Amino acid sequence: MTSKTQSSEGAMAEYVTAVIGGQLFGLPISRVQDVFMPERLTRVPLASLEIAGVLNLRGRIVTVIDMRARLGLPKAVDGKPPMAVGVEMRGESYGLLIDQIGEVLRLPEDSREENPVNLDPRMAGFASGVHRLDGQLMVVLDVDRVLEMIPEKLAA
């Protein structure tokens, strides 16, 4: 699966949308492997708060990252169970805990803008740009940046 397609209007990018703390994020569809409800999360002793734990997903050990903690947001208080987006990096499987999964959006690549100067610095550190949608800003998550900042010894 590819995240960019050619069409008559130019290069298009596809994103899986997710909501974290009320903010809309887009993950390049080429990086998303699964969307699942995390069950039986096992806490990792001495791991940072960003590591929600590990779980077994169809025979794979998946490190689950709490995206609210990663972005410096408070824990959700609405009582809804979180969702997870499965991604991979360097052969390791990760699940990014999110509040809600959205739809797949296909947007023109040239409508993507640089991070605005007033974007929260925590979000800007994980963002590779933004798309302005009808009355809403979609922050494009750079999955590599999200995962590279996880200390190696705590991620497994």
Itemize the secondary structure elements and their pairings.
Blueprint: E1 4-7, E2 10-20, E3 23-28, E4 34-36, E5 51-57, E6 60-66, H1 67-70, E7 83-89, E8 92-98, E9 100-108, H2 121-124, E10 127-133, E11 136-141, H3 143-148
Parallel strand pairs: 3-11, 6-8
Antiparallel strand pairs: 1-2, 2-3, 2-9, 4-7, 5-6, 7-8, 10-11
Give a short synopsis of this structure:
The chain has 156 residues and is mainly beta. It has helices spanning 67-70, 121-124, 143-148, and strands at 4-7, 10-20, 23-28, 34-36, 51-57, 60-66, 83-89, 92-98, 100-108, 127-133, 136-141. The protein is globular.
Task: Label this structure with key terms.
156 residues; disordered C terminus; six-stranded mixed sheet; mainly beta; five-stranded mixed sheet; single chain; globular
The averaged pLDDT comes out at 88
User: Structural class, please?
Assistant: mainly beta
Radius of gyration: 16 Å
For the report, how would you describe the main beta sheet?
6 strands, mixed
Helical proportion, percent range: under 10%
Low confidence ranges? 152-156
Q: How many helix segments?
A: 3
Q: What is the element string, with H for helices and E for strands? A: EEEEEEHEEEHEEH
Query: What is the approximate shape?
Result: globular
The count of strands amounts to 11
Distance between the termini: 27 Å
* Portion in strands: over 45%
